Amino acid sequence: MKNKKSLVIVLLTVLLLIAGGLSSVKNHQTYAASDTRVVKDNSGKKVTIPKKVKRVADLWHANNPILLMVGGENDLVATTKLIQNNKLLTRLYPKVKKQAVPFNGESVNTEELIAQKPDVVISSDPAQIETIRKAGLPVVNSMFQDFKGLKKTVTLTGKIVGGKANKQAAAYNNQLSDDIYEVGNRTKMAGTPSVLHIVNKTDLTKVDGRKTIVDQWIKTAGGKNAIKSKGNMISVSAEEIIKANPDIIIVGNTTSKAALKALKKDSRFKSLKAVKNKKVYGNPTGIFQWDRYSAEEDLQLWWAASKIHPEEMKDVNLTNKTKNFYMAFFNHKFTTKQVHQILNGEVIK
Length: 349
Fold this sequence. Notes:
Blueprint: H1 2-26, E1 36-40, E2 46-50, E3 56-58, H2 63-69, E4 76-80, H3 81-84, H4 87-92, E5 100-103, H5 110-115, E6 120-123, H6 126-134, E7 139-141, H7 147-161, H8 164-187, E8 194-200, E9 203-207, H9 213-220, E10 224-225, E11 234-235, H10 238-244, E12 248-251, H11 256-265, H12 273-276, E13 280-282, H13 297-308, H14 318-330, H15 336-343
Parallel strand pairs: 3-4, 3-6, 4-5, 6-7, 8-10, 8-12, 12-13
Antiparallel strand pairs: 1-2, 8-9, 9-11
Helix pairs in contact: 7-8, 8-13, 14-15
């Protein structure tokens, strides 16, 4: 009798395991080999995805505007909390507000992500990618640190969406290449003022060092990074900033007026050359922050060059250039007032 009970328990356990396995399978979409294709992500890994992608989970904040730029709004099924809190982006792309948010900026809710049945997940964090891959979902790494990488990311995102997205991606990359050349050509003989890029006015010692996208647009715009340390959003000592004594300071997520005020109020930095000469500027924010891994890096080049080398850029109409960019790549017509707000570092809601 005891053996029979043991046998029943074993059989029930096996059945439960089978049922659990079937339930798990239901969370993942399977495709015949003829219905799939392979894309190579920015880490060089080949990832198999459906020929026709219909559901994209984009878990990197900065990649969401790129996905939208190439026409992926209708494919987006999961995004990030930062993107859903972006009032301008969600006003222009209202469907984003309705999508799931399995990533809060710190951790991924794998169950919620699986529930969206994405054909592909886009991410930038290796640890996050490994977790998602173990969950059985196809995931690509779209992270980059320079303009070459940005172009690879735009191409990759276009390939994922497919169809007309490839043409839009190519158009963007062509313009970015042209603008990198033109801005660099305008500023190459004009000297190289030192430029400090501060992440935001809340912490004036959190900066962007070398080997970053910030470092690259500073160089392309005709400057040199005042910080010698490498890395994105790194903390440095006040002494290092004082020793660097930059010619120009650019502060993210704020206006020029507020940035200058914050530095003047800080006894450590009020005597810096850039502060005394009032060469402190708040960095523009449009659909995303122009300075950080954005499709708007193209505009950042022109804006930064206009601050670093105003004489060489005085014939450039930044207002028109900005309007034309958003019309061409985001199909949105901003008013002159709105463009001036963006250029001044104000956030449009």
